[in-house]
Structures are given as structure tokens and as C-alpha cells.
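Q: What would this chain look like folded?
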Amino acid sequence: MVDKPPISKQDIDHITSLLKNKHFKPLLQELKDWHHADIAEVFYNLDLDEALLLLRSLDKEKAAEVFDILSDEIKEKLLDRLDDLELFKILDKMPSDDVVAALDLLNTDRRMKVLSCFSKQDMNELKIQLLYSEDSAGHMMTRSFIRLRDDMTVKEVIATTQGYQESSKEEIDLPIFVVDEKGKFEGVMPLHHLVFSKPDTTVKGLIKNDVVTVHTHAKTDDILNTFRKYEISYAPVIDVNNKLRGVITVDDIIDLMKEENSEDMYRLAGSAETDPTRQPILTKVRLRAPWLFITLIGGLLISWLMRSYEITLDKVVTLTFFIPLNIGMAGNVSLQSSTVLVRGLALGDVRKGRYASTILRELFSGVLIALLASSIAVVVSYLMIGDPKFSLVIATAMSVSISLAALNGSLIPLVCKEIGIDPAITSGPFVTTLNDFTGMLIFLSFATYMLV
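A: My prediction, written as C-alpha cells:
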């Protein structure tokens, strides 16, 4: 439970003042009752030297809790300034999955130096975990859990778990994971069985074996879908030989969902995968510029297209009044379809066997929207211009543009998914620019054919 209300700007200013004046005793006394999340907030208002000084002032357990929730950008800066032993003392107080996440930020040489500070067993286990791809269960799993043999008695289990909890770096609130003599996963034993079972009862008779597991090489999307589908709070991680390697908890899933949702939102906006609000301006520009160049190229292509249809536009100047209407409607419909598809793919609602039906539903929806929108447009354009042939061009072009946009918006994410490109990327400038170009081409082609 948090002992203090949310920190205010005055609190941050006060802590910063104590830190700058090196009044460490009142500083530490002030921070003693602060939640580590509140202390982490202070770091975002400090320069690097001040942040480093504050981190070194905290006891190692508190420093580990704070360091774990800082942004990767701040972590990387602090990592560059901490020596190997300082970093080890912080990492040694963290769960294995958080240690791996921090080691990922180091280059290979520095990583090996820091690993050498750990015990031989911890070092070898961390090395194995680091070998798995960053988006796999083997990489993100934690090894902070209780693993016991199935031939132990309840009395032996109680003695073992008490000793484990006393020596553990974090509070263990998971069930007991049971393996056989070869380390193969058997199931779990809920903690309440320790209370209601006789001391000489063996673990084998208390095992709950209908447990949902994930493979070490399972990807993040598959892991998220497994937790959503089965509504579980943990999942043992097993390898190809059914040996227990770790566990993924609901806390990991919450962090993963935040990360995935943030990445998708930034990609939908045509920005970088991660774009914290505190990033330096030049970093923002560097990460966003490549996506915006897609829009720039699309705009130049549209300019070239309009130049190619200069004769049509000269003869029927009124056409230009309705160009924004046509490409705007098509772009919005396409964005809706692509967003639905990207979200469906992320949640596992859209799978290979349902591709065709999903595309058809989006296409039919687009056609109905096109008919509705073009019906309104034909009436309004006739009232404005008074030319039925001109109104027919507007309605026909809009119908075709919107229908094609719905098809593009649903088809492109699926194609990208199959060829290994993140579908979220397609829902930003790429699809929008494509539909602007095709919408303009359709509009000017119909106008040239029917009016010129």
C-alpha cells in the first residue's frame, strides 16, 4: 500500500533541492516512505549527474526497484556511467526477467563483464536466457519460483519452501511447480494443499496437471493470446523436452500489453515503435522522419498525377472542389478497415482460416458505406453545380474509391502479416498514401472519360 499521496511538483522540487545541495541525510529520510514509482518520477526531472547521484544514494533494493521501472532511455544513460560492480549490485536484487531486460541494453563486451560478477550458476542461467530471441517466452520468463520433486513429502516441501522464501530476492506468490527426477514438468501443487494434507503425503498425489504451458520459443503475440484465451495468471515455460525452464506471470503480461499497445499506437500514427514524450527533439525527428517521407513521396506522386490530368482539370475546374471529399472518404474508410484488421490480428481474432470471410465482410461494409456516401454526394453536388452528368462522375468515383479503400485496408495488413512485416506499420502513412493516390487516379480517370 502506498503510504503517501501522489507526489506533487513541490515534492519533486524539494527532493531536487536536497540532492543538489547534497543534504543526503534529510533526503534519504524523506524518501524512506516513498513508493519506488514516485521516486522514479523524480528521475525524469534530473540531469544525468543528479540522477546518478540519487541512484547511488538509495539502498540497493530500493535502487533496483526504481531502476527497473525507468524508461530504457534513462537506463541506457545510467548504465554508461555505472561501473560493472555497481551495476551488478543493483541487478542482483532484481528478478531474472528484469535482469535480462537490463542486460539487453548493454553491448556484448560490457554484458559479459557484468555477467562475470554473478555466481557461476546465475551467470550460466542468464546466458541461456539471453540466447532466446527478445520476443520469446524463454527471454522474458522469470526463474523466481519454487520447483520441487514429485517424490517429496508435504513435510519436506514445507521445510524447503520456508527456506526458499527467506533467501529469495522477491516475494513468491505462485503455486509450487513440480518436476520429476529428470526435471520434466509434471504440474503444480496449490499452496493450500500444504495446509490440508498430512505431513507424510507425497507431492505426486497432490499434483494439478491440467496446467496451460508455453514453449520457450513462443512469440509474444502467442503468449498474449494464450493468457487471454485461458484467463490464467501464470504459465510455466517448458522446452522441447518438456523440462521446466521458467514461468511467465500476469505482471509480465501487463507490461507486455502496455508495450505492445504503445508500439501499435505509435505505428498507427506513423511514428517509431517507442516514442516517449521525454525524448530529445532530434531523436523524435530522426525516428519520425522515415515514416513521414512515405507521405511526402505519396504527395509528390499525387502532384505528378494531377499534372498528368492538367487538361481535364483545366476544362472542368469545378472538379477540384470535390477532390478532398473523394480522397478523404476513401482514406477514412481504409483506416477503419486496417485498424480493425490490425487489432484482430493482435488479439488472435483474425486467423488464417478466417482471412477470406474477414476481407469479404470489410469489403461489403465498404460497398454499403460507398453507396450511402455517394447517394448523399450526388444530391449535394447536383444542388451545387446543377449538372447531372457531373454529379454522376462524383458518385461513381466515390463509390469505387471507397470500396477499393476498404479492400486495401483489410488486405494489406494480412499480406504484411504473411510476409513477416508488422501489420501495424501498414495502418499509418502507407495505407493512407496509397488510398490518396488510387482515389485521385480513379476520380480523374472517371472525370476524363465522362466529361472531357
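The chain has a mean pLDDT of 85.
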